[in-house]
Every structure is written in structure tokens, then in C-alpha cells.
Design goal:
The protein is of the alpha+beta class. The chain contains 11 helices and 20 strands. It binds flavin-adenine dinucleotide.
Length: about 400
């Protein structure tokens, strides 16, 4: 075991929740260490969406202009394709103050935020540092056990925040009760080459028994092919041609390119889960983002919620940490759950309804997918298409950054 290190706040997990919280606390003058188990942020399966609510946060902290210099695509409307016909269902145009979702590969977004964080002397991001468990003393969490390239070590802290995602190690270590809501699907994740003549938009395609979402990443389509939960092993026992043929039937414009999926090695399986902790905190420990509430990919809102949780957590923790040295009490941790639980419940509730009424039925082939005539008629009106856009883009309860800003070291 190498020598231990002490910090005011130790954050486990360098995803959107962890890096944003680390940034906001360091900017406020709180010494923070963010632990990320991987060597870099380059993971293909992260979502790409930076929503209007996150753009608002970037504007509040003065990073919007720099963020806009990152390569990105602005998506102003989203549709689903049924029986070869594209139906626009979500329309951000006309919404204030941002009328688009920015599609930025998440590794670029996290690199950008981490780079901005490093400008503050109190920001310490440690890559290849994996949180292994909690150190508990006198009935409270007093630190995190960590595996680093130099060996195992301990980080003592006044408050630990678990942002380690939907397979959270610290959630297990804390023994908190989880409500598992289940999901009928998992996602096969692969790339297909993109050509200039292809559709511009990111969109979903529904066919009998199958569905897929195609994300435009300029020179390739990042494709998310939805399969029934637990079917992965059986699918992989089948020839890869079956997957290629199904993809070609769903999206005929890529038929000539499906051979880019050379074998099952080119296909990753992403497990979908939807769950939520009953309590997001214990003395000395707070959980936010997917560690507190694993989000379904429906609507692509998980990053949005993770960032909003981080803002709420920074607003609650920074005053308590700046007010006095030493461990903080549980009241600010409780306030984070009080603030963020309702928006999370509402969005998860909607995701569960869509899972039940649309995805489960499509995957079981119970229903040939179709949009009811009345809804199709209503969707002709932009005001109707604004409703899901507002919910997805801005969420239910918008957080505002209230933490102070210290001078940067560069
Ligand atoms: C198939 C799929 C597609 C999705 N697509 C989208 C989308 O397009 N848009 C969207 O908004 N949401 C999407 N989501 C949901 C979204 O990915 C999550 O809700 C969001 O990433 C949560 O952010 P987070 O920071 O809480 O956790 P994560 O993004 O999961 O980040 C957790 C971080 O912690 C690190 N970590 C894990 N364990 C440890 C440990 N023990 N020690 C140190 N570090 C650790 C991980 O490496 C990771 O970097 C999708 C989800 C799935 C399953």
C-alpha cells in the first residue's frame, strides 16, 4: 500500500457527472481529486449528446464560446422512420435560448472539461485510478480505497462522491438499497461507413421485430441496434450475415456497406438498465448520475441528468466545504437528492412507459410499428413537436450554477 493522500472532496468516476462536479468545485476553490479508472476518455459507447440544459450550464460558467470551437453537429430536429417514411417527432427549432442539441463525441467533451479544470490549482484528475471501496470510520465514510499504477492507496476525504456510472462500485460498497425497474432491451453497438449522399440526420428506424438508431458521426454511422434483453449469447452463436441482413433491411441505403461489420468482434453489447437508489447518500458519501439512477438510452438524456446532478451537488457541497475545515454533515447531501429525485423519477417514468408500450411490443413483434393517425396529424404542428424537445432538451427542473469562481492558475 502506498502512502495515503487527503483531499476535501474525492470523486470516483470521470464521466460527465464526475468531471463537471470536479470542475465546479475546483473553480469554487475546493481541493478535489477525480479518479478515473481508464487511461483516457476514449470509449466508443459513450453518448454524444450535449443538450440545451448543458449548453446553459456552459454559458453560466463562461465556457460556451470555447465549447463551440469543438467539432460538432447541431441537430435541430429528430425523426423516426417507419415503413420507409420519415416522421419528424422532436423539433427544437424556436426554443429559447438554445434551439439545438450539439452532437460532440463524449471523449472530446470530457477532454475539454478536464482541460479547463486543470487551469484551477485545486483540480486534480487522476487517470488509471480505480476506486475499489470505501474507508469507514466512526459511522461515516472517511475515504476511498484506490488502485493506481503505483499500487493500492487510500484517499482520505471530507466527502466522497460516487460518479462511477451504472455499474457503480461505490454503490455496492455503500450497501444502499436499489430499485431495479428492468429494461426489455440491450444494445448492439457498431459502426457503418457514411457517404456524402446519406441522410444528414440522426434518426431511429423501426421495423417489425427490430429497431435501430443511427448517429451521424460525419464519416461513419454509429449504430445502436436494439435487441431483446439477454439475447446476446444466442445472437452471437448465429452467423454475422443475419445481423448484416437485418441492418440492410432496416436501412437499405447502407446495404452495400454492411460488410464493414466483418465479424461479431466488431459488435459491442451494451447492457441497458434502469434503476434508482432509495437513498442517494450516507454520512460522508453522496451518489449522483448513473451511480444514483441508471438511465435508459431512450431520449439520450442520461448525460443531461448527470450534468444537472453535478450542478446541484456543487451548489450544495461548495458552501459547506468552504464554510469550515473537516467533514461536512449530511444535510447538504440530502438536499441534492431532494432537488434531483423528482426530475429523475419523471424522466425514468417516461422511459419506462416507452420501453413498455413501444420497445417491448416491437421486439416481441406484437405490433407492427405505426404512428396512430391522430398523433401523426398532431405532429404536423411544431408546438406539438416542441413538447418532447423541451423535455429532452431542458429537462424538468433546470439547475443554475451558484458556486463562486476563483482565479485560474493559467
Ligand atoms: C447504450 C446506451 C446509449 C446511451 N446513449 C446516450 C446518449 O446518446 N445520450 C445521453 O445523454 N445518454 C446516453 N446514455 C446514458 C448515459 O450514458 C448515462 O446516463 C451517462 O453517461 C451517465 O453519466 P455518469 O457520469 O453518471 O456516468 P458514466 O458516463 O457511466 O461515467 C462513469 C465513469 O466512471 C468511471 N468508473 C467506473 N467505475 C469506476 C471506478 N471504480 N473507479 C474510477 N472510475 C470508475 C467510468 O470509466 C466512467 O468514465 C446511454 C446509455 C446506454 C446504455
Amino acid at each position: 500500500m502506498t502512502a495515503s493522500h487527503a483531499v476535501r472532496c474525492c470523486i470516483a468516476g470521470g464521466g460527465p457527472a464526475g468531471v463537471m462536479l470536479g470542475y465546479l468545485l475546483a473553480r469554487a476553490g475546493v481541493a478535489v481529486t477525480v479518479l478515473e479508472k481508464h487511461a483516457d476518455f476514449l470509449r466508443d459507447f459513450r453518448g454524444d449528446t450535449v443538450h440545451p440544459s448543458t449548453l446553459e450550464v456552459l454559458e453560466q460558467i463562461g465556457l460556451l464560446a470555447k465549447f463551440e470551437r469543438l467539432p460538432q453537429r447541431r441537430v435541430r430536429h429528430l425523426g423516426v422512420q417507419l415503413e420507409g417514411r420519415l416522421q419528424e417527432v422532436i423539433d427544437f427549432r424556436g426554443l429559447e435560448p438554445f434551439d439545438y442539441v450539439s452532437f460532440v463525441p463524449q471523449w472530446d467533451f470530457l477532454d475539454f472539461l478536464a482541460g479547463e479544470g486543470r487551469r484551477y490549482p485545486d483540480f486534480d484528475l487522476r487517470m488509471r485510478h480505480e476506486a475499489l471501496g470505501l474507508i469507514e470510520e466512526a459511522g461515516r465514510v472517511a475515504g476511498v480505497r484506490v488502485r493506481s499504477p503505483a499500487g493500492e492507496t487510500e484517499i482520505r476525504t471530507d466527502v466522497a462522491v460516487a460518479c462511477d456510472g451504472r455499474h457503480s462500485m461505490l454503490r455496492k460498497a455503500a450497501g444502499l438499497r436499489v430499485r431495479d425497474f428492468g429494461a426489455p432491451m440491450d444494445v448492439l453497438w457498431f459502426r457503418l461507413p457514411r457517404e456524402a449522399s446519406d441522410p444528414e440526420d440522426t434518426f431511429g428506424i423501426l421495423g417489425a421485430g427490430h429497431m435501430m438508431v443511427m448517429l451521424n458521426r460525419t464519416d461513419y454511422w454509429q449504430s445502436a441496434y436494439v435487441v431483446p434483453k439477454g439475447s446476446d449469447e444466442a445472437l452471437r452463436a448465429r452467423p454475422i450475415e443475419e445481423l448484416r441482413e437485418s441492418v440492410a433491411r432496416l436501412a437499405p441505403f447502407v446495404r452495400a456497406r454492411v460488410r464493414a461489420i466483418a465479424s461479431w468482434d466488431d459488435v459491442k453489447t451494451l447492457e441497458v438498465r434502469v434503476d434508482r437508489l432509495e437513498r442517494w447518500h450516507r454520512p460522508g458519501l453522496l451518489l449522483i448520475g448513473d451511480a444514483a439512477h441508471a438511465m435508459s438510452p431512450i431520449g439520450g438524456v442520461g448525460i443531461n441528468l448527470a450534468i444537472q446532478d453535478a450542478v446541484a451537488a456543487a451548489n450544495a457541497l461548495a458552501p459547506a466545504l468552504l464554510a469550515k475545515a473537516g467533514p461536512i454533515d449530511e444535510a447538504p447531501l440530502r438536499r441534492v437528492q431532494l432537488r434531483r429525485e423528482l426530475p429523475t423519477r419523471l424522466i425514468q417514468g417516461l422511459q419506462l412507459q416507452i420501453q413498455k408500450r413501444v420497445i417491448r411490443r416491437v421486439l416481441r413483434r406484437e405490433a407492427a410499428p405505426r404512428i396512430p393517425t391522430l398523433l401523426r396529424w398532431l405532429l404536423r404542428f411544431r408546438a406539438v413537436r416542441h413538447l418532447p424537445a423541451r423535455l429532452i432538451g431542458y429537462g424538468v427542473r433546470r439547475e443554475r450554477v451558484r458556486t463562486p469562481s476563483q482565479a485560474t492558475s493559467t
